[in-house]
Amino acid sequence: MLFHLLFYLYPSIKIMNVVRYITFRAALATLTALLISLALGPGLIRRLREFQIGQQIRPEGPLSHQTKKGTPTMGGLLILIAVVLPSLLWADLTNPFVWMVLVSMLLYGVIGFADDYLKITRKRSLGLTFRQKMALQIAVALVLGLWLLWLADQGRYTTQFSFPFFKKWTPDLGGWYVVWAMLVIVGAANAVNLTDGLDGLAIGSSLVASGTYAILAYIAGHAKVSGYLDVPNVKGSGELAIICGALVGASLGFLWFNCNPAEVFMGDVGSMAIGATLGTVAVVIKQEILLVFVGGLFVVEALSVILQVASFRLRGKRIFRMAPIHHHFELAGWPEQKVVIRFWIIAIIFSLIGLSTLKLR
């Protein structure tokens, strides 16, 4: 909104030319999101306490977590507000990719909200069933995939697949691109959701990943830079750097309240929305494979759960003391703060590995 208003004043007011630059607007979106988070956070936390919206703790979890029972949850609502509002203010609202990512974030946020709400009303740590959750996630991802296919039919997108390190191997997936998009988006949403288990862990890791994808989105939308780095140029995708920037600011603001000891938890309404946002951005800019590197910590967390379940069902034995893997290290004697900070370091390393691949093509 502000972007269109301020740019309308150009060329009458020459300085307004600065709003043309994505980097400038991404920085403003980041600051706006941070300020919104810090301003609205205390009030939202008070409201959540008044409505007795407290976290339910798994009884089989680490004993230290039982003291967190009743801590306000569904704080992810703050993240959604702090991302959506700056995006509407500073992004080009005529860009279909902007609306696609925002719709993805909001719809997955609704799914997470429903899951959190059921946990609270039932006063137990289980909300939607696994099948219900997956059905809803797949349905939303299907809509997003078909949206991309529709844009491809209009000549505004391409269903070609891009694989790092193989410059000339860009097969056109056609209708199968929908399935591929669904796999990435649903996988990302659940991976971030599984990482959310310790104070500050998921939001800190998301901050790193969203900052990295802000850079990747800018590169993908810039014809010269993407050509130089030999990565797919997706016209218009640079605007997604503004949404990613807003997510960075919102993450910083939420971390202010979510660091140990947490005043509020993001809940599924936040973790699913963040994961879906990262997955959708990755699909749009054709950097889905890099999500495995940039979001490597999320992948490790998800794999630890898959391996734990598979091992127990096939052999009757567990690989880890508890899954996701951050609980394994807690039960091994690591203090919660140590697990979180070390996992943040790992997230940064994964992110740097992802960025380094840009010069290895």
Q: How is this fold's topology laid out?
A:
Blueprint: H1 2-8, H2 22-50, H3 76-90, H4 96-122, H5 130-153, H6 176-195, H7 201-221, H8 223-229, H9 240-258, H10 267-284, H11 288-294, H12 296-315, H13 325-331, H14 336-356
Continuous helix count: 14
Q: Which ranges are low-confidence, i.e. pLDDT below 50, for 5 or more consecutive residues? A: none
Rg (CA only): 20 Å
The counted number of beta strands is 0
How much of the sequence is in beta strands? under 5%
Compact summary:
The chain has helices spanning 2-8, 22-50, 76-90, 96-122, 130-153, 176-195, 201-221, 223-229, 240-258, 267-284, 288-294, 296-315, 325-331, 336-356. The chain is mostly helical.
Structure characterization notes:
It is a single chain. By secondary structure, this protein is an all-alpha fold. The chain has one domain (20-359). 67% of the residues lie in helices and 0% in strands. The chain has helices at residues 2-8, 22-50, 76-90, 96-122, 130-153, 176-195, 201-221, 223-229, 240-258, 267-284, 288-294, 296-315, 325-331, 336-356. The chain is globular, with a radius of gyration of 20 Å. The protein starts with a helix and ends in a 5-residue tail after the last helix. 49% of the residues are buried.
